[in-house]
Amino acid sequence: MAKRSAGMLLFRRGEVGLEVLIAHPGGPLWARKDDGSWSIPKGLYDEDEEPLAAARREFAEEVGLPVPDGNVVELGEIRQPSGKLVTAFAVESDLDITDAVSNTFEMEWPRGSGKIRSYPEVDRVDWFGIDAARDKLLKGQRPFLDRLSEIGGFG
Predict the structure, then answer these.
(1) Could you give the dihedral angle defined by the CA atoms of residues 60, 61, 62 and 66, in that order, rounded to the nearest 10 degrees?
(2) pTM higher than 0.85, yes or no?
(3) Running DSSP on this structure, what letter comes out for residue 133?
(4) Which of 53, 80, 105, 133 to pair with 9, CA 20 to 30 A apart?
């Protein structure tokens, strides 16, 4: 059975039109990667958890702030190149990310060194115009931007 992940994509109407809040993964494997490496704040969930509840939980863990109140827009599900199924939701909000801080994970680094180090799951979040976000996001998540544009009438 494929792994399932759920995420929350915040959007706002900014100076450049539609803007979205996306996250850059933390840790040494992603440190020097930028375009094509960002993600919707998301994470895995079990069969017994509702995708929307998982999306809210994962956003809070990765961004360090709760999902703002607002109408939730369902963006549907996409199968990633890895086979993982990602369900995404969107909420319109001009969230202040000044105090954003992610949870952490541990891994051996450098590999084979025996040293366990702690890293933020997300090392930064930022607002991007839809065109810049398309460049930044993982290729498999870009269709969510198209769906948001269509649903929100941002065309």
Answers:
(1) 10
(2) yes
(3) H
(4) 105
